[in-house]
Amino acid sequence: MGEFDLIARYFTRPVRRAALGVGDDCALLAPAPGMQLAVSSDMLVEGRHFFADVDPEALGHKALAVNLSDLAACGARPLAFTLALSLPRVDETWLAGFSRGLLALADAHGCELVGGDTTQGPLNLCITVFGEVPTGQALLRSGARPGDDLYVSGTLGDARLALEALLGHAPLPAEVLARARQRLERPTPRVALGQALRGIASSAMDLSDGLLGDLSHILKASGVGAHIDTYITSNLIAEKAYLSGENGHFHLEFIRQCTLAGGDDYELAFTAPPARRGAVAAASQASGTPVTRIGTVLAEPGLQLVDAGGQAVEHRYASFDHFR
Amino acid sequence: MGEFDLIARYFTRPVRRAALGVGDDCALLAPAPGMQLAVSSDMLVEGRHFFADVDPEALGHKALAVNLSDLAACGARPLAFTLALSLPRVDETWLAGFSRGLLALADAHGCELVGGDTTQGPLNLCITVFGEVPTGQALLRSGARPGDDLYVSGTLGDARLALEALLGHAPLPAEVLARARQRLERPTPRVALGQALRGIASSAMDLSDGLLGDLSHILKASGVGAHIDTYITSNLIAEKAYLSGENGHFHLEFIRQCTLAGGDDYELAFTAPPARRGAVAAASQASGTPVTRIGTVLAEPGLQLVDAGGQAVEHRYASFDHFR
């Protein structure tokens, strides 16, 4: 199969909202009046972001999900995306699975594939996603103010738990691993929550490299600090019941590592004034997405971790850095 | 150097036209009223699109140039781009050269870097470029009509000539190779010509995989055929004087191969009605870009090549296919 047949078979669909889709030199997008276009690019590399033997359908899902998560963090509505794909060889079974996972998530969000590129080379997926957001209403990292509440959506740390198990560092029963692995391989981008938080959240970002490291970007951009209640965040790992059962080797420190610095969560972290707690709860309910208040924004820079007894928690949790 | 230092040092500049640039979850673009956004993605892989030892400054130039060439083919004005970069290691000398070449071309076209991604992995560059074009005025592949003139801009075949020399297939004197290599490594995207052809050209595309193969996309999209005068196209190789001198081993067949199926030309191929020849000449002059009429669009499908004596030229020139 040649390059153009491959594109036609697996990646070309009728254009819906875009003015022009796959097959010309450019795609054409026409944002509605009063809308800004939100744009984000993510690149996924074999061995770095996924295992060589990952289910291609899950990989298709995740490649788009991590990009939709960036749109969610801005409060943008997904519109379209481009896919650039470097493949070692044409493997139709792999391509069929990959495009199925990719396009199922795209369809679920009304986000259409409008163009891209295919080439031969080491496996590499680069997606650029486009969304629209009313002018001036995008959620930014820079708006957190002292006294704001600090929230995260959903659960934290299960993706890292799965990764540790898959690397052989943390033995898990099959059914626990299967659940955690879903969080690692099929993250849920919080697109509806992000849009519901427009006009409510003072800042937001998505969690890809671990809560503490990612949060430091909000704090730096906003010129503030924060304290976090680690007895709350430690409860946000979905497998808490299993981990805190009779499994002595999964001690508190491991749970803290997973929840505070695990990475690959693709949840939203955001801030909002205490006066907006009702609005945050309504946004959570309207979007069907649980949110948890985990701390407070402080005027003085730095991140303070506090345990259930009010004691400071020592931390040296490094966030994920692709070059360290 | 970590990922964020790398981005700050080599790829972050003050935002100019974009509403929000590098450093948040998304960049924000605000197309002007009445404008559509033209979008194109290209991925370049080491060993496939460039040699491992290529000058990083030239690579930075080329990575953006091939994307700007897609905007040119649509008649769009460059606005912004994202860069996703997979690097085996942080090599500051390489990064400094790469970003210098990339940003020099970006500045020359007023096209700003608004975001992207960096990761560790086999060298891979993925750029997504954004341009604006008045609604309904984009140049498409599908508008060629029987009787239209067929044109190409600039020169053809020198990039392939350089490639053959670098692969050891075609010995060239150093100064001839140096000139041809400029065409291979530092192509000139025909951005001004593309915009000047809006409202004049009936169809257009850029030439990346070789004239005949690329032209077949216009013909297919437009439901037409074409004839091409190969004695004209064979004269479009810049090194014609050298090649047709005392160098018997560079015979006509080699020149035809380079000009008709060479690849990496990044010129525009376009069609326009004969009544618009004056307008095409004016667009060429206004944009400072030579154009040459090389043939005619025909109603019957297929591509006919004709030599100086009016004889049909047999051809089996394959265009570049990344998976063949």
Automatic annotation (TrEMBL), chains A, B:
Any further remark recorded for this protein: Reaction mechanism of ThiL seems to utilize a direct, inline transfer of the gamma-phosphate of ATP to TMP rather than a phosphorylated enzyme intermediate.
GO biological process: thiamine biosynthetic process; thiamine diphosphate biosynthetic process
Record: residues binding Mg(2+) 5: 209
Residues that coordinate or bind Mg(2+) 4: 25, 40, 70
Biological or metabolic pathway of the protein: Cofactor biosynthesis; thiamine diphosphate biosynthesis; thiamine diphosphate from thiamine phosphate: step 1/1
Reported function: Catalyzes the ATP-dependent phosphorylation of thiamine-monophosphate (TMP) to form thiamine-pyrophosphate (TPP), the active form of vitamin B1.
Reactions catalysed: thiamine phosphate + ATP = thiamine diphosphate + ADP
Ligand binding (Mg(2+) 2): 42, 70
TM region(s), chain numbering: none
Uppermost EC category: transferase
Keyword check for Nucleotide-binding: yes
Keyword Disulfide bond annotated: no
Chain residues that bind substrate: 49, 264, 320
Signal sequence extent: none
Alphabetically ordered keywords of this record: ATP-binding, Kinase, Magnesium, Metal-binding, Nucleotide-binding, Thiamine biosynthesis, Transferase
Domain PurM-like C-terminal: 145-306
Record-level Gene Ontology MF annotations: ATP binding; magnesium ion binding; thiamine-phosphate kinase activity
Protein residues bound to Mg(2+) 1: 41-42, 117
Protein name according to UniProt: Thiamine-monophosphate kinase
